[in-house]
Amino acid sequence: MKHKLKLVVLLATVMAVPVAFAQGPGASTYKAKCQMCHGPDGKATTPMAKMMKVPSFDASGVKKKTDAALIKAIEEGVGKMPAYKSQLNSKQINDLVTYIRVLEKK
Ligand code: HEC
User: Fold this and answer.
1) Within a domain: residue 19?
2) One pLDDT digit (tens) per residue for the chain, 106 residues
3) Among 96, 80, 78, which residue's Cα sits nearest to residue 34?
4) Which end of the chain is more exposed for a tag (fewer CB within 10 A), N or C?
């Protein structure tokens, strides 16, 4: 009986890890502000993304860009991408960059 309980606890821990990872810092801001254009996985597959010709984070060379360059793009906007400086604080923007790095790897 005790043994079984241990197994349940272990399973719950293992299963909680990917969820925590997927919802890490930046995820909720991303969902609220970025997902409609960049898609839930950053691959820009939403109708809005297609309409606006948003590049996927894989294809747009974002991987090769520095965090500072991405922060600047989010703060000031690029092309059709709006600027977020007035809506998001620097912690939120940093968290978004961290989240983009997670999405890039998928
Ligand atoms: C209205 C649609 C739209 C929304 C909302 C949007 N983006 Fe973008 N984003 C774009 C487009 C279009 C580009 C491509 C810009 C270009 O290269 O001309 C882009 C490019 C980017 C890039 C790449 C910049 C670069 O230097 O290559 C990053 C990073 C990015 N977006 C992050 C975000 C984040 C984070 C959010 C949410 C705070 C967000 N975007 C919200 C449309 C959007």
Assistant:
1) no
2) 566 656 555 445 444 444 444 567 899 999 999 999 999 999 999 998 999 999 999 876 899 999 999 999 999 999 999 999 999 999 999 999 999 998 987 6
3) 96
4) N
| Rounded Cα distance, 103 and 106, in Å | 5
Nearest partner of 85 among 100, 95, 97, 73, judged by Cα = 73
For residue 54, tell me if it sits in a domain.
Answer: yes
Ligand 1: centre distance to CA 27 (Å):
15
Region for residue 104 given its phi and psi (left: phi exceeds 0; alpha: psi -120 to 50; beta: otherwise): alpha
Which atom from ligand 1 is nearest to the alpha carbon of 96? 35
CATH number (domain holding residue 44)? 1.10.760.10
Please report whether residue 98 resides in a domain: yes
Inside any domain, residue 59: yes
The tally of domains found in the chain comes to 1
